[in-house]
């Protein structure tokens, strides 16, 4: 068993830990390259270039900040070279036939080729002053989706693809219903010679009726479309009520139901795959390092430590010792297979190592720090009343912010509040150990400190600018305002019930980023198409411009339109940033039929509505529903894994020592203490406290995975790699039958 | 064991069958009264008077159809007397202390008293020409909720009440977020001197900012509220994007999640209660009728038959025989406890008794009916191509409807289509047995026939009126148009995938009625309050009226408002019907800030939004989600109860006889046959076919209850009545632990 075996095992364990799924070559050089491939700097660099490539649209024509064509094309070629390099690196790491079978890689290569070709053609045509379309810009989001790092986004796309067949049937039925209602509307209202509020003919043309009623499904033209018929006869309101109940309430809920149902089904399947994959990788690693010991195979302590050092170089010695003492329960000097398999999970549990050290001041000026006034001060800060006092101060601050700032007293008060907040932070740092106060999981401490110091910096900067240059920077003032209000959020964390909801919201954030990615991809594609189709059709002029047709957004056809009347001129596709904002408005749906004013835009807008609102927003809602249900069921049932219990058992037997510093923990998470008592281990005699990072910062994925793992027996080696990859949602693998039906 | 015991047992069984939950006295007269109380005519009458009482608002001032005060007050007193009578009847039936402890009954009595008092005061004041408010009209919906018949509506209200505490916390957090964002908006935009598109000041006053942003949460003023800030600087769009993501997408989803989660939890609990209650009632009934037989207690066949005849007087003899042969499996002449307990479920399963009888024509004119051309004709009608031909005809019909009707050829075509459809129905009746064709569960046959004959009647009526009186009745024409389009819906049933979705939709209908009731209650209360507050503020004038301020809806304050510009004048609270339509528009949410134009209306509208959109619409969506999931999981897993299997087993052993009539079944439900093969029993030699009414007409409640019952062991007698009523959702009763977490 050599050094290279150890490296290979480390690669397996690290893959298991981060749920990576790359079939790499097992030769020593390949494994070394693979470790390099997974290095966080390489990954960050890839993401940087992906986003650079996407943001090129801001600088290319039609640009928000114009750059010469040469500059953007050089940047694009640079990005493409980086992608090619990354792909080559990947090719060296993985097996030859696996690499060429993977559509992801083929996609990236085709995208690089297309981009280069398009760039070359466009450049040559430009030399001859021929204007052509940069069509390859649509393929740019492919890099975001297809690089191996974006597993989450790909999963979301897979989930959408899997939902499509089911949603198609509901959609067809919905369209059928829409067409039937339109036919009825045409027959009922078409020959009445009615007029809309704008004096246009009402429900005369079948296609227009269909479109108007499609808009009504999104509720965007809700009473307007009904009013002419309603004015004619009150009974006609019944038609619209029936329409809204059937199409808006029932069909839209049905869409959500179909999307949610599929989302859940496929999520379960994906999580199951991940769990089996992890198990298998850990067994591979075990087989590489195992040695015979009596009747069983085991891994000796020394090799185990080498492995952990390789996999997680950042962990402290004491943390490693803790992990070992959990894995090697009876201190036999080796780790058996069953314990080894849990290593990936053990490494994933964020254990906070609290060195129980004295406060730095207690070491430097022990006499002063230990004196009676100092003790009193610290006990005041630790008291509950201290928290309440500051909650009261925040409330008073809120009132001051709401009041007008004209009076000088109020702007002085701002300085007072700033000072009070700074004193609070200093007092807390004085009382608690600073490295603990700024621990990784102390979200609110970091939040407070950052907000306060940013506000302090901005306020001082603003005051300096004002006194020296007699100039009020609007940007800085805006930031000061926002920071001032953000400060008030902290009060939410003081109330236990709000805290639970906030935890759900905080846990949702990581996966929200996945949806951010998904939305980015859809927005990019639609924005680029939109710019090619509608660029320059609408222009924005400042309020007091005297350009011709300034009031009609530079387009005489818009005279008297609702678009111009609503002063929507800035909602245009003239550059990448505006396009994004228009697409955001279309996602919110309201008034989209007014924003849409060019005739051929209808199809574009309907396509966007179907993709974004019916599919992606529903997936987003499904995700939030699922996240909430998972959080909620854990709140109630206190699922604790075997591993957590072990840490707890281990900590239990050790005597308590420094009461004062234990109080530190009590105070830091005082309100959370009831929930976390099981999670936090008692301090060890060495002056170490291990504490599982609080529940509130666990992601939904991790929670779901843990749930599923609890269902696989520990002895089960699971199916082979090939079997795992081909698992379908309906394949008969162990799971409780009631969970499907009772859910 | 006497006649009165049998009556008492019948009451228990009937309660179990219909999930009634009334603790009645067991004395013979009380039981007799109780049977009368539950008679369908008594129940229908109660509902009639409840709806009469509610609809009085249409005739009372401000009236849609004015009636003199004397008439409405006499009607109201009549209704109240009926309610009092019904309550007295109920009091005679139930135990004294139970009756007086039940808040439902107290509520009804208080409501009757209040209504009478108010009516008297109003009448007296009217005599002296003093105008007062009929405030007691708000209590009218109490009758709808509190009569024992409206179990479903009460359950929905209970579900809302149970959800309230949880929703309150989310709501407070949401309000906090709204207030914070408003504060930020005030600081950022308040001092910029911006103007809205209407030239009004933008974001100057804190309360107005809060209201504008609340409207933005509902997306009703989506781009408008952003445009002034966005025109000032593009960066400010980020503020609104953040606002929409946090408040519209995340918080509104959170509301749905909380409501859905609670809905599911309480639904499970209610269903569990119902299942235990049913078990207990059946055991009570058994204990009344049991006789000793060997070592066990049983019920003898004769008595069993008497009981079933009492409980379900409408069932045919053969049906009763079938039930007996299922309950008395080995034909021992008695029914044991275990089988007896299932009787309520057995009675609930809609078994269609198909008497395999010859077609009436085959009996009357056997030679003609059995002749070669007749056989050929019948085999054509049974052929798949016949269905396809008519699908094609429907499609061609759709095109003709969409075309303009000016040309005489097209209006002749309408007669041709009508004739074709009538021929289809006649051919089908000729081929299939008529009583079977119009069986209870043949939804589409009924649908077709009704639509076609209504269309025929209306068309003939219209043609007659036109030719004799030269008069085109618009109402009749409208109905003809609607019927013509509705006819096209049938094509959906030809496609298997659509059929599955349609089944879900059809199954949803009964519970939708519950939500209809719920909505009716909320609408009534808000409509009555709205009429008192806003009546007469806005007036509607026909288009060419020359009344003063006709364009401003009779209210000079509305000059130049968006309300008047959108021609919304008919959206007012001037009578009960208009109020309902305005409330419907507010439920759809869009433009509600424009519909709202009177200043103090804001609070009214926000209250309505919270009650209707945040709570009731979310419960409605939850209900559709749950219904869909239940339907979906049953589609896949084919849960069949032991009872259904028994019918199947029983049918199995019997020889087949009349092939031709078996084909009847095959053809009638041809596409459904794959799904239903397990459900339909083979014909018996007596010429009887039992068939379980198809899955598509089962309600969600019944499905859920069956699911839960599968989890209770048959021997389990369950808790006592008192324990059942006090069950809480978290009480530890048997259920699979994984279903809670894995769901």
Automatic annotation (TrEMBL), chains A, B:
Keywords: Membrane, Transmembrane, Transmembrane helix. Gene3D superfamilies: 1.10.287.70, Voltage-gated potassium channels. Chain C (1.20.120.350). It is found in: Membrane. Residues 45-265, 384-633 form the Ion transport domain. Its main location: membrane. The chain crosses the membrane at residues 40-59, 65-85, 106-125, 167-186, 235-263, 385-403, 409-431, 443-463, 504-529, 603-629. InterPro entries: Ion_trans_dom, Volt_channel_dom_sf. It is a multi-pass membrane protein. Residues 722-743 are annotated as: Disordered. One of its GO terms (molecular function) is monoatomic ion channel activity. Pfam families: Ion_trans. The keyword Transmembrane applies. This is Ion transport domain-containing protein. It comes from Malurus cyaneus samueli.
